[in-house]
């Protein structure tokens, strides 16, 4: 048999899909089908799946085998760290770090570190992991993460288990809900830092203190079939947060939280988000970018086949005034909205601060953004709103086949300081705000 056909990497596929529309636009006579090519990309799968199923069986390290009983069942952290060390340093090519089904484990803030001697390691979480509800566990030591995996190649985290952040005390003491409280950053429930060839799938992450899942400084990441939930009133409880990472695929997740279902921030490139259910929450966001006059960049993002229900935003790009950098080559397509406030929005004047934000002479550039086949109902009169900076206009916004209506009334579209090109049949039709 000859060699198998080479698979294009995610970066190449997303780049070709998004860049082609912008390239075609500059040619006279390009029609809407040329400007909006069909996006194609890999499914949420990883070659590690076949690799793990072949060859000799992996070594299985069970956390229960390392429990000492000295803590009276109150704290299982040391047993988890001992089991992780054994699995990570295994001389076998593959190892499994097993959290058995049908049991609950109390974990203090913990970091599972690499690099590992094992070529591939799977964290098989079948049981329930419980975070301490006492905020002092983190505040007394200035900690901002609960469970962290760091510096690991070929890590898989799966198993159908549950991570319970027990975040109620963080929410009710948040300055977002109680203005008299001091603002502090709450912990992220599940954090991946500097991981490569990472697979995260089939887990429930609930009631995090702040963000539920964060992916940072990582490459070649596949996230799928996560169930993420927290009350709609819980502040800052983003579902999946991506930063400084590239070639990330997120698919088939159900996310119901009090903040962005998915947020993609600076340093992220070649990100594909597909088949997501979002609601309640703040929608799917690029940003925020450029806070405190910082430089930020996000590019080559594809969001498709999403359903949003009752969210306070739909698909959003948000940047602070005074920032620098760019958000470019971003595509939203095949999206269904149901009773969504601000279904489509770009806000270059984003301000999430107790102090008022004043107009500044610089902004993060927003350019080459496309929207296609987005339909549903808007809870706000303005269904499409591009609020762009007078200092640096939004450029190259392309729209095709948008159908958003209000509840018993017409919805509207408006934009300021933006270049918008429309194809096909669009409701509402966008007109510049004078």
Task: Describe the protein.
The protein is mainly beta and 434 residues long. Helices cover 11% and strands 44% of the residues. It has helices at 10-25, 32-35, 48-53, 77-88, 136-139, 168-172, and strands at residues 59-62, 94-99, 104-106, 110-113, 120-125, 128-130, 145-150, 155-158, 162-164, 188-193, 196-206, 213-216, 219-229, 240-243, 246-251, 254-256, 262-264, 268-274, 277-278, 284-289, 295-309, 315-320, 324-340, 344-350, 365-378, 382-387, 394-406, 412-416, 418-423, 431-432. The strands form 2 sheets. The protein has a 12-stranded parallel beta sheet with strand order 4-7-10-12-14-17-20-22-24-26-28-30. The protein is globular.
Care to count the β-strands? Answer: 30
Strand count, sense and barrel status of the largest sheet are: 12 strands, parallel
Shape descriptor reads globular
Return the structural class: mainly beta
Our count of helices gives 6
Beta-strand percentage? 35-45%
Radius of gyration, Cα only, in angstroms? 23 Å
The parts where pLDDT drops under 50 for at least 5 residues are 1-8, 13-48
Mean pLDDT: 88
The CA-CA distance between the termini, in Å, is 65 Å
Strand order, sheet with most strands: 4-7-10-12-14-17-20-22-24-26-28-30
Percent helix, as a range, is: 10-25%
């Amino acid at each position: 048999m000859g060699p198998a056909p080479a698979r294009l990497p995610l970066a190449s596929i997303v780049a070709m899909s998004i860049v082609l529309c912008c390239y075609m636009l500059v040619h006279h006579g390009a029609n809407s089908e040329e400007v909006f090519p069909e996006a194609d990309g890999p499914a949420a799968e990883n070659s590690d799946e076949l690799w793990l199923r072949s060859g000799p069986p992996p070594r299985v390290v069970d956390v229960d085998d390392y429990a000492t009983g000295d803590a009276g069942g109150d704290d299982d952290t040391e047993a988890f760290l001992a089991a992780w060390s054994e699995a990570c340093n295994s001389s076998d090519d593959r190892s499994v770090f097993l959290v058995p089904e049908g049991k609950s484990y109390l974990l203090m803030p913990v970091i599972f570190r690499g690099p590992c001697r094992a070529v591939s390691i799977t964290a098989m979480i079948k049981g329930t992991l419980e975070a301490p509800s006492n905020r002092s566990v983190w505040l007394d030591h200035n900690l901002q993460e609960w469970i962290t995996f760091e510096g690991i190649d070929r890590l898989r985290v799966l198993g159908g288990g549950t991570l319970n952040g027990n975040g109620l005390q963080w929410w009710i003491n948040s300055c977002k809900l109680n203005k008299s409280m001091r603002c502090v950053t709450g912990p992220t429930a599940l954090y991946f830092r500097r991981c490569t060839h990472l697979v995260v799938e089939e887990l429930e992450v609930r009631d995090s203190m702040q963000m539920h899942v964060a992916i940072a400084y990582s490459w070649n990441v596949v996230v799928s079939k996560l169930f993420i939930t927290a009350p709609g009133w819980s502040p800052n409880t983003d579902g999946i947060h991506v930063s400084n990472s590239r070639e990330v695929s997120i698919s088939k997740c159900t996310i119901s939280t009090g903040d962005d279902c998915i947020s993609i921030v600076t340093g992220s490139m070649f990100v594909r988000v597909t088949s997501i259910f979002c609601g309640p929450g703040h929608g799917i966001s690029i940003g925020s970018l450029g806070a405190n006059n910082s430089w930020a960049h996000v590019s080559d993002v594809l969001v498709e086949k999403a359903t949003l229900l009752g969210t306070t935003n739909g698909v959003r790009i948000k940047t602070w005034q005074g920032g620098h950098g760019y958000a470019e080559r971003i595509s939203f397509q095949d999206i269904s909205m149901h009773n969504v406030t601000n279904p489509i929005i770009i806000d270059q004047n984003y301000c999430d601060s107790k102090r008022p934000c004043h107009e500044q002479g610089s902004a993060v550039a927003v350019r080459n953004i496309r929207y296609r086949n987005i339909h549903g109902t808007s809870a706000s009169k303005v269904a499409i709103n591009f609020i762009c900076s007078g200092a640096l206009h939004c450029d190259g916004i392309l729209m095709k086949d948008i159908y958003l209506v209000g509840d018993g009334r017409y919805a509207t579209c408006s934009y300021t300081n933006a270049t918008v090109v429309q194809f096909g049949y669009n409701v509402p039709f966008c007109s510049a705000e004078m």
